[in-house]
Amino acid sequence: MPDRDSAELDATLARLRALAEGSLEQATAMPPALYRAPEIQALEKAEIFARDWHCVGLAADLPAPGHYLSFSINDQPVFVMRGRDGVIRGFSNVCLHRMMRLVEGQGSCQRLACPYHAWTYELDGRLIGAPHMKRTPGFEPRSHHLPAIRTEVWEGWVYVTLNERAPPVAELLAALAPMVTPYQMQHYIPVALQDHVWSTNWKLLTENFMEGYHLPVAHRATVGAWMPVEDTRFPAERHAAFTVQTFTKDETARYGRAHPANTRLEGHFRYTTVMPTVFPAHMYVLAPDHLWYLSLRPKSIGEVHVRFGVALAPEVVAVMPDLEKEKAELLDFFDKVNAEDRFVVEGLYQGVQAPLAQPGRLSWLEREIHDFTRYLAGRLAGWRESPIQRERAS
């Protein structure tokens, strides 16, 4: 007979498939066990994080050769670095000697030196120096190279994957391109990059980001006042690799409208914000004057690494009389927004532990949560969309 944990896993995945199969009009939130079961976390590591693309950050955070950003995929530390030829490449962030982690966070260097024994690497990953190894027979440093991590840059974002068979990012996000390309976000100027750890399940934070239903309540002191939720729009067609919504900002909004010097955007784009979630865990708010983003990495069932970044449109930065002062004010504002979200998602994680927790019906404003449910069902529960479902969704 199957044990209790196995039976609960089967029941959770069956419920996930049923939610994916059904319509938004009849959908509920996902079952609590999906956020708290160790068996689900093990499935996610194998079927999601080992397979899909993950966003390290903005290519603009790597402005010159030698600039790097570190990241992790499951238990694999990685880093991306701009080479002397200008190309951004990804590598295993583990020294070839005694397996010390090579870099932390964000930085720059002319050569990459291990902090343990100073084994030294060129910017393309080649080992070029290993002190006191001349007495080791047959050892030739230049025959060694850090393992490469598959890396692609799309519209200014740097993505990495451990899966050599994953389709290219540009192919997966082809339908998103017309919505974001007019903004030319690859030219936005980074003003913040932070890493935090929040006490929640990564899926709860992803879901919270992608729905506007909570904005007038949870964010009433910050962004909620400027976002008329009734103006939220979703594309008719659904996509396997991402979900997206758009909304507009009126003249009262502090942020979110095109600067008069912006000559890139015309018509409704000048006051429209695009909010994509690229599955599994890269999400951003792209406005005519700024963008901000989250990229998530589960640390455990109830802890998630949160990478948070902000960038400003170049014409906005060009007219700032005091960039540091205005940057500090902007970050203070987003600190308040993030604190509001952290309160919610950590409370949600406490809630899903409750024996009496029950998922409720979804609002039309939570369409993207149903999209996320379908993505998870495809990855974890073997669900596949039928032609009939595709026609109904459109």
| CATH class categorisation of the largest domain | Alpha Beta
**What is the count of DSSP helices, taking H or I runs of 4+ residues?**
11
Give helix % range.
25-40%
Tell me the major beta sheet: 7 strands, antiparallel
Structural class: alpha+beta
Distance between the termini: 43 Å
Look at the structure and give the mean pLDDT.
92
Domain Rieske: 53-160
Keywords: 2Fe-2S, Iron, Iron-sulfur, Metal-binding, Oxidoreductase
Pfam families: Rieske, Ring_hydroxyl_A
Cofactor: Fe cation
Please supply descriptive tags for the structure shown above.
single chain, alpha+beta, Rieske Iron-sulfur Protein, 2 domains, seven-stranded antiparallel sheet, six-stranded antiparallel sheet, 11 helices, oxidoreductase, Ring_hydroxy_dOase_asu_C_dom, 2 iron, 2 sulfur cluster binding
Describe the structure.
With 394 residues, the protein is of the alpha+beta class. It folds into two domains: 4-52 and 180-386, Naphthalene 1,2-dioxygenase Alpha Subunit, Chain A, domain 1 (Alpha-Beta Complex); 54-158, Rieske [2Fe-2S] iron-sulphur domain (Rieske Iron-sulfur Protein). The protein is 28% helix and 24% strand. It has helices spanning 4-21, 33-36, 38-49, 169-172, 177-180, 202-210, 215-218, 314-318, 323-351, 367-380, 387-393; strands spanning 54-58, 67-73, 76-82, 88-92, 106-108, 112-113, 120-121, 127-129, 148-154, 157-161, 189-198, 242-248, 272-278, 282-286, 290-300, 303-312. The strands form three sheets. A seven-stranded antiparallel sheet has the order 1-10-9-4-3-2-5, with no helix packed on it. A six-stranded antiparallel sheet has the order 11-16-15-14-13-12. β7 and β8 (127-129) form a beta hairpin. The two termini are 43 Å apart. Residues 387-394 have low confidence and may be disordered.
